[in-house]
Amino acid sequence: LSQTISDKIRLNQIGFYPNGPKTAAILTSEESSFYILNTTHTDTLFSGKLQKPVTNPLSGKIVRLADFSSFRKQGTFVLSIPTLGYSYPFTISNNVHHPLAVSTLKSYYYQRASIPLISKFAGQWARAEGHPDTQVVIHPSAASANRQAGTVISSSRGWYDAGDYNKYIVNSGITMGTLLSLYEDFPQYAESIHTNIPESQNVIPDLLDEILWNLRWMLTMQDGEDGGVYHKLTNPSFDGMIMPDKAIKTRYVVQKNTIATLDFAAVMAQASRVFRKYSKQLPGLSDSCLQSAQKAWAWAQKNPDILYQQNLINQQSDPDITTGAYEDKNNKDEWVWAAAELYVTTKDDKYYPYIKQDLDNALTIPSWNQVRALAYYSLSRYGSNLTQAGKKDLPTIQQHITIVADNLLNDVETQPYGTVMGKTAKDYIWGSNSLAANQGIALIYAYQITHNSRYLHYALSNLDFILGRNGTGYCYVTGLGSKSPHHPHHRPSIADGIDEPIPGLLAGGANPGQQDKCEYPTTIADECYVDIDCSYATNEVAINWNAPMVYLVIAIEALQRS
Ligand code: G3I
Ligand code: 9MR
Fold first, then answer.
1. What interface predicted TM-score (ipTM) does this complex get?
2. Can you give the pLDDT at residue 3?
3. Which of 231, 429, 435, 506 has the most ligand 1 atoms within 8 A of CB, as the residue to mutate?
4. Residue ranges making up the domain that contains 68
5. Number of domains within the chain
6. Is 162 a pocket residue for ligand 1 (Cβ < 6 Å)?
7. Quick one: pLDDT at residue 561?
8. What's the CATH number where 52 sits?
9. I want to staple 78 with a disulfide (CB 3.0 to 4.6 A). Which of 86, 180, 422, 501 is the partner?
10. Is the same domain home to 76 and 132?
11. Low-confidence ranges of the chain (pLDDT < 50)
12. 430 lines ligand 1 (CB under 6 A)
């Protein structure tokens, strides 16, 4: 009998709720019993039989599930399969994911530009300020009558996008939309998250203080003259793996375009209603956000289809820009999102036709280039407070969300890991873990609409997926769980000389695309992940991946508590 930890036992390495579902996936073809033991292995507290074998269509490996949902004792345990060994330890308790919620939200503090991180808040990851961004140059592609190429503007603060140090409006858009929605959906639980940041002592919840850091940057990305919004603030090319304060190349803002401007409008419209509550502490902010949103909207109406095309820009101007492109060729969904947030905030029916125009098409899980679901989430949330036009379509809008959720649940029982994520190889895109989280969010909305607990149950299955019940056995959040990423493609984590990576960061996850050309042990879709910093296609981190993670864990915690 094996006395060691077995990598063939895959489960959420953080834990489970006493009354919630509890599942482990075992890579074995053998019929077997499984046991739950205390961590010293002296007491056997529960036993059960493994379920019938399922062949994983992606790898051909055989998986059996262990269901121990009826084991409700609180504490820390291991699961044992006598012929294989023990699982990593896991905890059963109420609020078991609270530390994960704190840590994944705190990660945004570590991503802050234009501020030194001091040890009181950053612990061993204290570092010097990077990128004051007070001397940012207008790139020729961004020139306008009032701001000619070469003009210098100030565009401080904001979060670094990912493992790189650039700041991109499109990706900030979905990130902010997700975090603002989290506050609107679960204000009470969100207010109970304390991340120990410089603003923690004020009366504003830490989640909103963190959001403010990026909001204030985003506001500077609008050309105040005409309302258009720059695509990004960036170096011409990516830095090496160096600390932020050592990365001092000239930074530019580049081309205003319709999609960035609409994403900006959506965020500002939503921020305006969220921060209205704090008008005393933040005088004028809510009004400024709304004005900026309306100005952006007006610019987009005058410039309805300017796409960001990096190659084109590089043919026409210097210096060449080769950093993250966030090129999206379809702006239909951004029109819907901006219109929806402006409509919800102002209750002005003039925005409604833009929402209406896409109402017949199937909804998709959100990503940086597909934001229509964010519009529907907000409309659904404000259902009873909409004008007649919106109220009339509310059933259709909510049905779009439940259809997406039902599609996710379709055939889920035959999935080898019993998770919604990974039903097909197509799920393993660049940033696949963020897809898992966004699927979970769609299920949470479906649960809020219908109160059918099956949706909540399977939202939790995707949290389990991210935390270990998956094809690699990784708990994909740095600093948590027993087997988590140690070498993310994240410049500060690599360059700071500290062994442990910055905590609370969600790695991109399995992606057979291998766009980085690093060395991979396999091409199998759900196993194609490698914990080396070379691997930006599987092991980078990004603000738009962490945001749905923060949302999912807080939503599950909040719903568990209620
Ligand atoms: O649009 C096609 C779709 O039609 C096709 O079915 C699918 C099949 O794989 O591919 C889709 O394109 C993908 C695209 O993302 C849109 O999802 C590309 O293959 C994929 O390579 C591309 O990956 C993006 C990557 O940048 C490269 O551009 C990621 O989504 C995006 O998250 C990532 O973002 C980077 C920033 O550029 C820079 N900062 C770090 C950040 C995270 O890695
Ligand atoms: O570090 C960059 C990462 O943030 C991007 O997601 C990735 C794809 O655009 O590119 C990384 O930068 C790499 C560059 O594209 C090629 N040379 C190596 C760089 C990584 O060190």
1. 0.95
2. 75
3. 429
4. 9-92
5. 2
6. yes
7. 74
8. 2.60.40.10
9. 86
10. no
11. none
12. yes
